[in-house]
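Example record

One chain of 249 residues, shown exactly as stored in the release files.
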Amino acid sequence: MAEIGLQLYTLRDLLASDFAGTLKKVRDIGYRVVELHTYGGYTPAKLRELLDDLGIRAVSCHVPLVRLESELDKVVEEAKQIGLDYVVCPWLPPERRQTKADYDQLFDILRRAASTLHEAGLRLAYHNHDFEFQVFDGSTALDTLLSGLAEDGVQMELDVYWAHRAGYNPVEYLQRYRGRADLLHMKDADGETGAFAEVGSGVLDWSAIIAAAEAAGVRYYIVEQDVCPGDPLAAIQSSLAFLQSRVKA
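Predicted structure tokens for this chain:
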């Protein structure tokens, strides 16, 4: 059965002021799985100790593209120390996503990274925003990347909010990439403003998304809310409660 986790970027301001204390609050709310975006000033080994002490498991980490290019061996070493299963490419700087040639270059980088990670017992995933849905030669950049990297075992970390924001149905992407969507970013969209919202409080069709996710073999539902107008701890608690009421335990 899939597990519910939290992308810690949601709590970035709280983590910056009290990393260990905020992680404890995450645990107390009920999360036992997290996705990292920073080590919080800890070494990978010390971070693993902290997580183990709290009873939290980090399954994945968002790693900047430049690190996948220039220091992949170090990324692998850190991932092994922390105990990760996945390394995720989370974002493309604007200057690196303007043309089809930019995505061709990204394809080569991801293929090399996937090979190195696979040899180390790790998997590479790619996290989308809305800009990867730009169409080149009749296909979205995201589809071109994922179809080209199928044999390399690259996973899609589908962000359902950003797919929706780009005008695409996340259910269709889950169906299309069945077996390649281990990680799913869960966030909702406000019906009036389109802003980020707690899971279950907006306009996304969660019954359809969760059904498609189960059929696709999603392993981790990862809550993320890029911006929380109110208390981010209350926001992640609300999202967790909603998903616990919908996801098979």
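Notes: The chain has a mean pLDDT of 97.
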